[in-house]
Amino acid sequence: MDAQSRGRADEIDPADQWVFNPQTGNYELRLDQSAQQSSPPRGSAARGSASNSAASGTPAPGSRQARRTAAPGREVPGREVPGQRSRRAGSASGGTNPPTAGRRKRKQPASRKKKALLWTGGVMAFIVVAGSVGAYLVYQHFDSNLNTVDVAGAGSGGFNKNQAINILLIGTDKRSGEGNDGYGDKNSVGHADTTILFHVSKDRTNATALSIPRDLITDIPTCETKTAEGTKDIGGTRKTRFNESLGQEGRDPGCTMRTVQKITGVTVDHFMMADFNAVKSMTTAVGGVEVCLAKDINDKDSKLNLPAGKHVIKGEQALAFVRTRHSVGFGGDLSRIEIQQQFLSSLIRKMKSSDTLSSPSKMWDLADAATKALTVDSGIGKISRLRDLGMELAKVNPKNITFATVPVVDNTDKATVLLNESKAQPLFSMIQNDTSLTEVKQKEQDAKNQQAALLKGPRAAAADVRVAVFNGSETQGAALSTLTWLQNEEGVLKSSNEGNAPAKLARTTLVYAPNQADQARKLADLMGLPATALQPGTKDAVGREAMTLTLGSDFKGAGVPITGPAKAPEGVQKVEADKQVCAK
To answer: Are the C-beta atoms of 427 and 407 separated by less than 8 Å?
Structure first.
């Protein structure tokens, strides 16, 4: 369809160039000359011009074909598709590009909205992810834009619809890219400056984006890196900043993946990494992102200068917003994480908005910006694999995407932080057990039903619970740590450590007699045992006979519920993606 006949001579709809391929069943982008011919324009004058041109073999003046078939070396008037690469033009009679099959003739001109929906649903991958990388929209034309790194431990790229997905999003402070000389560490190869573990539930109803503070003191495990010369093991480091898991000592993103797995107990499937340019280019592509400030901010370090209220920011200003920390909250990295989460929530809402989805030019520009800014592992280093991932991630409603931060406490040096074990471990357990941080109705109802069956009937006092604890897990000292927690924290004084179980168990079990059912319910409450863990016997216990608790491979730590808590611990910082929060 000719742009001028729609009264839009200054904007060509890139969706007009997508062609249905009956051999693959997909719509494909055709940039060759023969695929550039369009349907006859509307209006009698336009039809006459088109027919006369067809008879003489000359393209109609002002038509898209005429603009694109100028002689080689001649400037072609008219604007090209947003984000489209330049290509050689050919003459009407015999271009420089070999002819290929043209696209099918359409029966009826589709509306822009319907065409955009077809374009997004059938061809493009709408990938909602968070972190410095923001949100990505990719499709086949931009395959060559992708940068890939072959790291040990990454998945193959297949996505089982019955399994959760865990993607590690890494924003590096490496000063690569145009205009970034004034940011980051001048001589650094880059750190894991912003890191978010993005967990998508196996039923695709919800997602959790867990920010990991860069100044968290942790152990970085030994990791295998792949180079042109072969594989190389890089030794681990104890008690160092988390951000050194990338770049330092030659560590690649696979080392960051292993460090996150060691901290959280969650297996990471893939990674996506980008630098400062991702924020600048992607916010520009969507026309800006709305943010809210509860007060005036003039941060000389990040160069953010905005009055209180709502603002639409993009480019350098957007980068300044996500980098600011001294003028918000407590002025540290944790405050910067909060403002980044607020920004990313707004970016996701903008990505999902009809303003973006109904604009082919915005989507095109966004795809170009995203793929150029993105580095991924080889397991998802093809657009076809990212498309599959994108179609899975796009199923999650923004109202069920929750940003959270790993709970920490200040270290004695006041410059770094330490893991808050009592709050962090239950939060990690929720992700491990695929428990949503949002109020997903079906999950709530399932949890209530399970709790109702588990808690039905009376329960004994903690002081009356008698239990022998065995360790059938892979965790050394699990029985002792559980005993200490039961006695010191929960008042279960009639408990004993029986050492290792005769055999390893996959699941924790509690064997009890019928007349110990009230004790079993109480212990199940304390430990978060699922109903399937309870194994009632047929004969009553005699005298001081104790129940038998055998810890299995699902044991995550003393005091950490086996099934995962039903809700996040009190005090865990959270931001829901569908709600706007003003930075303070």
So the answer is: yes
